[in-house]
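Okay, any thoughts on this one?
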Amino acid sequence: MEKKYVMNTSGNFYYNENYLKINNTHLTAEFVAKKIRDEFQLF
């Protein structure tokens, strides 16, 4: 799968304006969903 898809990046993502990196290890799904909604103005 890793040969066909990029699973991890080192920050060099080609859609920088549409990219949000979130370490959700200690965050709830609800919090992350709200953060994504707010960041991309999805109301």
Notes: The chain is about 25% helix and 0% strand. Residues 6 and 25 are 20 Å apart (CA to CA). The chain has a mean pLDDT of 85.
